[in-house]
Amino acid sequence: MTIEIRNILPQELERVGSLAVAAYREYAQSLSEDNWEIMRTNLSNIAEIAKVGQLIIAKQDNPDKDTEQTELIGAVIYCPPSHSDPKIFQSEWASIKMLSVASQYRGQGIGARLCLECIDRARQDNAEVIALHTSELMLAARAMYAKLGFELDIELPQRLGLRYWRYVMRL
For residue range 97-156, what is the model confidence (pLDDT) as tens digits? Predict the structure, then answer.
């Protein structure tokens, strides 16, 4: 299985929103109907939201299809310093947003590889810190962030009826 990590191409933009919504769909039952609709709308707009940074994808060669076919299996937004959300992050920090991995590919290191790509880009951008925020629902992701070296920094105000935390990694 060959996994390619790279910036998204224009012709792939419409597919990434569907990937993000599908990756988070399991959390719909933990949210109110209104809050799920807000999250679903944000996720489906990932390509628009990514304009503040770089939309990075993970693609896999699909041996069950033509040799030209690849499958979109993950995505993340990398925000370089001065492009992160100022309500959550310090302006000189880089940040990671909206990490999404297709459910059938979880546990295979795809999310970690996407995060490591963001960390490498933050280092290239001379960021001193890379940060992210995540919710109480993201148990596996929080464990992965800790394993990668992110540290719990602060609890953020609730969003969508959920507890959120900011994690940071000093580079």
Answer: 999 999 999 999 999 999 999 999 999 999 999 999 999 999 999 999 999 999 999 999
Say how far apart CA 6 and CA 144 lie, in whole Å: 21
pLDDT tens digits, residue range 68-111?
557 899 999 999 999 999 999 999 999 999 999 999 999 999 99
How far is it, in rounded angstroms, from Cα 43 to Cα 20?
6
Cα 166 to Cα 150: distance, rounded to the nearest angstrom: 10
Tokens 């990434």 belong to residue: 16
**Helices and strands: H and E segment counts in the chain:** 5, 7
Angle between helices 13-24 and 33-44 (to 10 degrees): 150
Residues in the chain: 171
Contact status, residue 128 vs residue 60, Cβ threshold 8 Å: no
CA distance 123 to 138: 26
Q: What is the pTM of this model?
A: 0.93
User: Is 88:113 a contact under the CB 8 Å cutoff?
Assistant: no
61 alpha carbon, distance to own chain's centre: 21
Three-state secondary-structure class, residue 13:
helix
